[in-house]
What we know:
The protein has no helices and eleven strands. By secondary structure, it is mainly β.
Amino acid sequence: MAKNYVQTGNCLDYTNAGADIASGSVVVMGGTLGVALDAIPSGEAGVVQITGVFSLPKVSGAVIAQGESLVWDASAGAFDDNQATPATGDVSGAAAVAAEAAGDGATTIAVRLTGVAGTVAA
């Protein structure tokens, strides 16, 4: 194995500079989305998984097809369909894909986090 190998990269250490983060919550690291594997108190470090499929919050009115790229709506704290116009702090692009279809009224969706950085709206 290469001497400079560090890890597989599916999970990353993350130092929380904001409010406490609950286990299972979406964490935005630049344009990369992940899920906190445990609670991460403010000022502490924890582990965030940036790949895999998770059941995560969805904007209730969004109609999403399986395989569709998603927008992380920062103000709603939920995923929206790719037709949504990103507002400041929202993450769009290749960062997350719908692992299942979800219709109007659904409040969660299976999301595949890709580990690829998306675009953060300014």
